[in-house]
Amino acid sequence: MHHVQDATVLVNPPLNDRRTINGWAIFDWANSSYALVISSAIFPAYYTSITDDMIQFGSISISNSALYAYALSLSYIIIAALSPILSGIADASGRKKFFLKVFTTIGAVSCLTLYFFRGMDQLDTGILAFMGATIGFTGALVFYNAYLPEIATEDRFDRVSAKGFAFGYIGSVILLILNLVVIMNYEAFGIASQGVATRLAFVSVGIWWLGFAQITFLRLPKDRKGQFESQTLRRGFRELHMVWQQLAQLPNIKRFLLSFFFYSAGVQTVLYLAATFAEKELHFETTNLIILILVLQLVAIVGAYFFAFLSERMGNKKAIFSMLFIWILVCIAAYFTYSQVQFYVIAGFVGLVMGGIQSLSRSTYSKLVPINTPDRTSYFSFYDILEKLAIVVGTFSWGAIEQLTGGMRPSILVLIIFFIIGMLLLSRVTIKQHNQNIV
Questions:
Q1: How is the chain split into domains, by residue range?
Q2: Is-contact 79 389, C-beta < 8 A?
Q3: How far apart, in whole angstroms, are the C-alpha atoms of residue 176 and residue 45?
Q4: Residues 6+ apart with CB under 8 A from 290
Q5: Which of 6, 78, 124, 412 is the most buried if burial means most Cβ atoms within 10 Å?
Q6: What's the pLDDT score for residue 198?
Q7: What share of the chain is helix, strand, coil (3-state, %, to 5)?
């Protein structure tokens, strides 16, 4: 197939270079601070505490939690619309690292801007900064993930992917604990109030994210020196169209992407709404919720490495199957759970498969992408879009069932359907493992 190439050839560092791989994994260490501190642990509670329960927009009245959910959804829709175009341009112009830097900067600066979100008077600033941080985080992941096949050989994908997630979990937990110490002992640190200490936590995420990302930028392969021209946008669309045509003729990778979409709808919904379920159904206090989140993160480190090890023994397909089976058992157990102790046990299993399913999904897709394709970013863009759309579908389904039934428990049962569909589609996928086919 004809492919437009730049005159300057990209010279990559050797594959499986330890320094390069660690540099790549450090990006997970850097940006996961957003995922834990901003989207999970501290910002949601802060946002709820400083905003009115009902917010007026002209004649429309909307709850603060609904506005938060809509802001999150809109962020994912924006990045789902932008990322395929930008990834096509990145492949066509050889500027993958450029876009990685752009989205990292957008995300980190947005986190810094959250410092100025003090209450209802700065609601616009708070919502826009939160959306900017989300867009920066999700947008950068497309380009970050696409580097995996460029820095490691296929037999190392599982372990390298696991290393990235493990770095992310460890780094984010360290920063969260530091922030919690400061917030809970703000007077000892000479900080005026707990509110200021909380806003300083958002600043710390921006500095942590942008600071550690510099190591990644230094160590990853350099961009080709292709210039932005009048034709670059058109070439970006052409690149995207070519990958779409290639996918149409690759039924194996299509089936995996569909499977990934359905089981991700279940996985991501659990990750986003587990804390809400614990708070509303099991009456967890804020302290208990943070302990719950820390349990999830720490067990996820073990899970990422354990299932990478398991995939080497039994193949990616069987390893993913085993995790999806555990996800189904987790949903069934959660449906019948009424005590906090039981939920902590379930959270331990969620953490185990949370780290494994995300890490192994990324490395499995890397194995399915055609070898030596110049369109890696565009391929990973489709992967990323499906994950974001899965979040929208999963969370919307959860919300709709909850609204219809008046409780969150029936929503859990709907997630089981997503996991079952994912397993059925995965059963028809052939995955290469160490140069052999695992059927």
A1: 18-53+62-438
A2: no
A3: 14
A4: 41, 176, 180
A5: 412
A6: 94
A7: 80, 5, 15
| Calpha distance 194→188 (Å, rounded) | 11
How far does the chain reach from its first CA to its final CA, in angstroms?
28
Token pair, residue 414, equals 């709907």
Angle formed at CA 79 by CA 77 and CA 81, multiple of 5 degrees:
70
Six token digits for residue 15:
């594959």
pTM across the whole model: 0.79
313 touches 360 (CB < 8 A): no
Q: Which fold has domain 18-53+62-438?
A: Growth Hormone; Chain: A; (1.20.1250)
Q: Please tell me the predicted confidence (pLDDT) of residue 373.
A: 80
Tell me which residue has tokens 């037999």.
Answer: 155
Q: Which two tokens stand for residue 210?
A: 């942008």
Q: Which two tokens stand for residue 274?
A: 């587990």
Lowest mean pLDDT among 5-9, 16-20, 190-194: 5-9
Would you say residue 436 has pLDDT above 70? no
Interatomic CA distance for residues 227 and 125, integer angstroms = 35
Cα separations (Å) of 23 from 101, 109, 183, 213, 362?
14, 22, 31, 9, 18
Q: What percent of the chain has pLDDT over 70?
A: 92
User: Pick from 431, 384, 306: which is nearest to 141 by CA?
Assistant: 384
Confidence at residue 280, expressed as pLDDT on a 0 to 100 scale: 74
Phi/psi of residue 21, nearest 5 degrees: -65, -45
Strand partners, 436: 433
Q: For residue range 355-374, what is the model confidence (pLDDT) as tens digits? A: 899 889 999 999 998 877 87
